[in-house]
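Fold it.
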Amino acid sequence: MVDYEELGRIAVITIRRPEARNAVNGDVAAGIEAAIDRLESSADAWVGILTGEGPVFSAGADLKAISAGGAGGLSTERGGFGGITRRERTKPIIAAVDGPALAGGCEIALSCDLIVASRSAAFGVPEVKLALVAEAGGLFRLPRALPPKVAMEVVLRGEPITAERAHSLGMVNELVEPGQAVEAAKRVAERICANAPLAVQESRKVVSLADTADDDTLWRMSGEAMGRLARTEDFREGPRAFIEKRAPAWQGR
């Protein structure tokens, strides 16, 4: 139900459950977690892309599984809902959203570091319509990605916003035509992969905590990150390549 494919430095993770609108069940959650494990352990892949097959990115939790009392199986111990929403990781992941990302599907997209969406995409957390709450991070990640009043409206009305509006408000990084989200995400990933991978990972760690950690912590983390990078081969390669006027040959070590 979840495919993993490495294309050079990019790993593409695809939810393949289109007959159920890519809803998350136990197999999907376990599959996403396993795919992230492969990305994290791969020496070749530096950036991941997460997408869904078919006209829907993901409709969120499989309501049939919930009604049958199986909601616990939609999460993993390390990753949380869908194997990703609470997952600690080091490498950036781009959500390529082509079609609606609703409920847990929206929360999965928000768990990623960047979002590339087509004009056919929409984002929402309609849980209040079902006497539920968006407990997989949507209630606090949406206000970080959108203006607070807009996020409150999305949550309380339970109605999605278009990809165009999400892009205009800064939640979506790049807006493309339908069917082009994955290819556009690959281009974004390639631009990231042109940079030193360890520097990308260290920078991502600090930026991801910018909304929740205090300045003293962030100053300390930034200094520690530079200290770790100073002991790597890539740290020496960057200035050397600049002086020699050539593209750097990053090793990721």
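The first strand starts at residue 2 and ends at 7.
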